[in-house]
């Protein structure tokens, strides 16, 4: 019985672990833009951890200011996407476990 309780605790701890580093799923940006965008996404998600809409707004507005207009951003969980974007302007990543972030520039 005690062994079963210990196993259940271990399994529960493992399930509650979430990666806190950005996990890039798809990206066609150059390295400099990718690094800057990833840092911005991490900062926004940490600052607005309970409000995905505010995080997306911060990412979009910052990208528009730094790299010109027409950037788009979605932050959330459990969504699919099909988009058209400019070449070398797509980043799809995960942060904090299940929070997905997609950033792209429209033509």
TrEMBL record:
InterPro entries per record: DLC_sf (IPR037177), Dynein_light_chain_typ-1/2 (IPR001372)
Q: Name one GO cellular component term.
A: dynein complex
Q: Which residues form a coiled coil?
A: none
Which keywords does UniProt give here? Answer: Cell projection, Cilium, Cytoplasm, Cytoskeleton, Dynein, Microtubule, Motor protein
Q: Which Pfam families match?
A: Dynein_light
Q: Where in the cell is it found?
A: Cytoplasm, Cytoskeleton, Cilium axoneme
Q: Does the keyword DNA-binding apply?
A: no
Annotated GO biological process: microtubule-based process
Assembly and interaction partners: Consists of at least two heavy chains and a number of intermediate and light chains.
Biological role: Force generating protein of respiratory cilia. Produces force towards the minus ends of microtubules. Dynein has ATPase activity.
Name of protein: Dynein light chain
Write down the species: Rotaria sordida
Q: What is the lineage of its organism?
A: Eukaryota, Metazoa, Spiralia, Gnathifera, Rotifera
